Amino acid sequence: MGVSRAKWELFKRVALYLTIIVAITIVCFPVIYAAIMSTRDLQGTFRYPPDLMPGNSALSTYSQAWNTVNLGRLMLNSGIVAVSTSIIKITLAMLAAFAIVFFDFRWKYLAFGATFLTQLLPVPVKIVPTFQLMKNFGWVDSYYALTVPYFATATGTFLFRQFFMSVPEDLVDAARVDGCRPMKFLKDILIPLSWNNIGALFLVEFVYMWNRYLWPLVVTESESMRVSQIGIKMLMTTGSINKWNIIMAGAIIVLLPPLVVLLFLQKTFIEGFVMRTGK
Amino acid sequence: MKSYFPEKVLPYLLVAPSIIIIIIFLVYPFIQAIWGSLIRGGVWGANTRFVGLGNYVELFTSPDYLWTLGRTFMFATFATLGGMAFSLGLAVLLNQRIKGRMFFRTAVIWPYALSPVIAGVLWALLFDPSSGLFTYLAEVMFGLELNWRTDGTLAFIIITIAAAWKNIGYNVVFFLAGLQNVPEQVLESAEVDGASSFQRFWKISIPLISPTIFFLLIMNYLYAFFRTFGLVDVATQGGPGKSTEILTYKLYQDAFVFFDGGSANAQSVLLFIFIVGFTYLQFRYAQRGVFYGS
Predict the structure, then answer these.
(1) Interchain pair B293, A208: CB under 8 A
(2) Per the CATH hierarchy, to which homologous superfamily does domain A72-277 belong?
């Protein structure tokens, strides 16, 4: 009796691990398959029946992907847009939340409410007039068009507001008694306490901006102002057939930067974002 | 009561940058979209005339728009429910007492970093009509000949799977966070009282994580509605026929390919009404502010 029970427990453990491994393999499989595909020559992508053997043309496919659509330039554009927008968004959100939590002024609730509009008014809801606005500003095909309309953020303002409200009141009182000016309080006390939030928000915004597709497609025209996501589309439309090896090499290159940011900031993301928004 | 800094002007200066951005780049264009939805004209406003709700009437009497609307709701519903069910199952598995939990969590969270465009090309490759792995497996295992370039239903299924798959990482992290908040003692005392693990899951865990479930329902729905343009544009371009033409795809086409500004603006305003609807549900039933990284 005791033996069979122990066996049953062991069986359950093994089954649990196996199920987890199978499920995770399913989740990871499309990218693994893409990585395999990216190492083959064109002939290899038509292999039938298909198999999972990598090829040995990685160097050539990756350099072709890099060169046919000037991927270096597109990645640089995506990087500039994603990093600068994330930093500015975080800064503006922090300043707004600081005002809303630590000052008493007439329009604070209105100001907080207004930031919600960023959630209610995503790109598709105003795409034609915003494009016309870019034209009027002479911003079409520039970094301004790719970044400035995104600077305000409800997520960030809300996250910082929530965090600032949890800062002990004694800390604020002590600072005021010491004659600490507000901006010094923000710089010397709040920001050092906020790194978790900043890191989490940086991940969220970086991934969000790096992965933009519709808006860059609309407001950029020249190839030198396109972004990396559009590069993948360009790889798909060059030539009469899909060169899957080259498309997949491009896809792997383009997915790496946000993946690296995610791996670095994963813990902060869960502590500073998931635990705060998802509860 | 929070103690405040006494400065009078400073707070206005601090909120000003955000507010200015919101007014210029969000509110003003949106008001113009409303106005633009009431007029009709040549290429984006040359020789315009006021048509009242004419553009809306046209949309709601056009089989094309109603089809797209129906497709989008189906797409969003299937992608949301399918993706969430798989993710919840995976989160429950990962929430067991297992070794290497951190490693496993990392192994599932990463699709969060992928873009809809990447999801689109990956699944287009797997279902490639001539050499795709899944096309081959379907033929060998079920004798099916899969070709999404001619089979609209299949194309629709593929973009739905791609959208659901892309959100697994996001869903699992939030489900795990929710499940970890279910008090251990409650589950243990239920076990002592003879509740099966199935009962413990349905009667205790599910109700306790219902806020998370609701939050994710809305997020996944909004995602499917507003962030899948790139997925469709690289994988199927709305086709074959109009089988994968979702609202944002039609909007883009009408605005930037057919230059029908009036109709495009009306479609934008209708999208806004959907967002307001979802957001209302979110506040009404999730009973807290919930955000999706905009």
Answers:
(1) yes
(2) MetI-like (1.10.3720.10)
Give chain B positions within 8 Å (CB) of A129.
28-30, 32-33, 36, 265
- DSSP codes of every residue in A64-116: HHHHHTTHHHHHHHHHHHHHHHHHHHHHHHHHHHHHHHHB--TTHHHHHHHHT
Angstrom distance (rounded) from CA A143 to CA A151: 13
Specify the pTM.
0.91
Cα A47 to Cα A245, B130, B133, B139, B279, distances in angstroms: 12, 10, 10, 15, 48
| pLDDT tens figures, B228-279 | 999 999 998 887 888 899 999 999 999 999 888 889 999 999 999 999 998 8
**Which residues are bridge partners to A194 per DSSP?**
none
Task: Output the six-digit token pair for A153.
Answer: 């953020």
Determine the Cα–Cα distance for residues B206 and B201; give it in Å rounded to an integer. Answer: 6
- CATH number of the domain where residue B69 is located: 1.10.3720.10
Among all residues of chain B, which has the CA nearest to that of A185? B5
Q: Which helix (H) or strand (E) holds B39?
A: strand B39-40
Q: Residues B3-38: pLDDT tens digits?
A: 688 888 899 999 999 999 999 999 999 999 999 999
Taking the CA of residue B207 as centre, how many other CA atoms within 13 Å lie in the half-sphere pointing to its CB?
Answer: 8
Q: How does strand B49-50 pair with strand B39-40?
A: antiparallel
Full domain range(s) for residue B254: 65-286
How far, in Å, CA of A165 to CA of A185, rounded? 15
Distance of residue B264 Cα from the nearest chain A Cα, in angstroms? 7
In the A/B pair of chains, how many CB contacts fall below 8 A? Answer: 305
Residue A240 burial by CB count (10 A; 0-12/13-18/19+): exposed, middle or buried? exposed
Q: Do residues A50 and A33 touch, judged by C-beta distance below 8 A?
A: no
Region of B78 on the Ramachandran plot (φ > 0 left; ψ -120 to 50 alpha; else beta):
alpha
Structure tokens at A136: 């009027």
Number of domains into which chain B is organized: 1
CA gap A127, B247 in Å, rounded = 13
Averaged over successive runs of 10 residues, the pLDDT of chain A (279 residues) comes to: 77 89 91 92 81 84 90 95 96 94 88 87 92 94 94 89 86 80 86 90 94 95 93 85 89 95 88 69
ipTM for the complex? 0.90
Contact A148 B21 (CB under 8 A): yes
